[in-house]
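Final report, Chapter 2: Outcomes

The project's central promise was a pipeline that accepts a single protein chain and returns its three-dimensional structure in a standardized token representation, suitable for archiving and comparison. That pipeline is now operational. To close this chapter, we reproduce one record exactly as it appears in the project archive, with the input sequence first and the structure output second.
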Amino acid sequence: MGNVVVNTQKTAPYVGVKEPVFIDGVCVEVVQAYKYLGLQLDDRLDWSKNTDALYRKGQSRLCSRRRLGSFNICQKLLQMFYLMVIAGALFYAVVCRGSSFKKRDATWLDKLVKEAVVKEMERLEMMKFGDENTLIAEINVTADRFTVYEDVLDGRFRDRLKLDNQTGSLTVTHTTTEHEGDYKLQINSVIKRFYLHVYGVSYSDPIYEDYEDDYDEVTSKSSSGAFADDEVETVYGVKEGDSVSINSGLTEMKDDDVIQWRFGDENTLIAEINVTADRFTVYEDVLDGRFRDRLKLDNQTGSLTVTHTTAEHAGDYKLLINSEIKRFSLYVVDEVTSESVTEGYSISLNTRLPEMKDDDVIQWRFGDENTLIAEINKRFDRFTVYEDVLDGRFRDRLKLDDQTGSLTVTHTTTEHTGDYKLQINSERKRFRLIVFGLKLVKEGDSVSLNSGLTEMKDDDEILWWLEIILIAEINVTADRFTVYEDVLDGRFRDRLKLDNQTGSLTVTHTTTEHEGDYYLQINSVIKSFRLIVYDEVTSVSVKEGDSVSLNSSLTEVKYFDEIQWRFGDENTLIAEINKRFDRITVYEDVLDGRFRDRLKLDNQTGSLTVTHTTTEHAGEYLMMYSRRFSSKVFIVSVYDSVHCCGPTEAVIRLVLSALVGVATVSIVVYDIRSRRAERDQAHIHTSGSIKI
């Protein structure tokens, strides 16, 4: 074998080898299959075991793709994830194994590939025109629907709109000056903007328009009868803290060039070059000094570099070279950690520090206003939470870890959904927290997911999603209410209803297939719901004054577990266990104190006992378990000595009482008759003696 060295620990002959194999005196184990370079090789070389492993891996990665999609991540990043993580696994070494597939294996992989590709294609695409944002065309890939609205705006687009069924691009034919203006393209939550200028033979350079809205992308188009492709904008993305250079497109400036760089909606001048006067100027103190010590001009090309970028530097940059105008968009992306939690549970936002240093200063901020909610100053050993800010939504809910500085939010509500900013000295991190509003429903019943609106506005667009699948939408402008009942194998067929006033969604005749995370998008605002459908109900009856135990069915509550017990139609929290914080709590004063001194929690199993029961304690008890987001429902009936607790027991007691009554009467009648017979017999005996 020359210089080849065989590792006997990583070598195995196939089962078809009859004689033992020895390499360097070591007997090598005979196997049916072996993993080599990421492939499962088997003794038949039919790749079945490799396909099984690949299918499981693909399903796992598709699950990760769904989770990413649920956090509203942009389509470009999702496509990158698909190409690198999913497609890379599916098509690895396909040249080697592709010719030897069994039919079953090919079917499995085809199904997986189709599902993966569908995930990349699922989208809602809309094109709007003008200041009124009039809908002129839309594509719904999930429903395979391509629609152009030619009769809007006095029919100016009639027989002039064409949609590309592969790319979603829009073509306007036979253009007139009536078609000049702003075109907005919305792909799911991403918005692009186009400006179309229609000119004739006497065309002069288009005048730059000051756009009032801030969109993700603006592209300028000009036309003398059709769309031309003179795209003039470049989009730049940069990680927060890094530098970015915005290219002027010049190889060298001319002697008479005058160059200006402007920023934002107000077109604030931030830098300029006058080559004739040999003057290079940056205006660092404008806009509250956000560009101070951060702007650099290239003295050969006039390109602009922004250093140490922050989110404040994101936006539109305009470059004016003499009379020519170019526009650029800059995105500043900071590291975002996405977290989600079901309403009522706790969530910890981790600093990733093993331990804070003596001079560390840590601040936690929340929301668009960057409201300070907690801070740590190690030098002064000061730990502070600001619970009364933001209308007290964080009151009694914030906890700081005194070793790592991590922040825990307890008893979460949907008001705690949003962005949390962490600053450790000069380092920044961002967390996006989604709190799912909890909705529970018994299998077979209906459940309504409330939009929170009292009435929809004329320009509202409402989308309802299950995970990343669009299941319903409302376009108020077009007066269109649509439910997509055939998606997801038809599980929603004849079960979805939209409220035509509020946009709320009702799911009727629920089954466990309808469980999951639902997202409501109202224009740019997103709300989240987690629906749990339960089918197991345990009925328990107890005599008034006695105790009743509701069994959690757990043998042990683990370290990260949370258990909550809720009561009644309002799901009022009455008791909970949080093992991580070693906290066992009963809320005895809720519901007018009916549970005061009556609740006991088993700290090992999480079971709940209600002592000294009264009829006020009868009702529905819900146990929620955080580890699997599972639940159990108990119906407790309390009866007194007169009234039994249920119709079945009432009938049994009535029958028993009747039987006892009949038996008692029978015994009494029998006793009376026996005594009377004995008296008659004695009387006869006495009369006979007198005659003798």
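Archive annotation: Residues 118-123, 200-232, 688-692 have pLDDT under 50 and may be disordered.
This record, like all others produced under the grant, will remain available to the consortium after the project formally closes.
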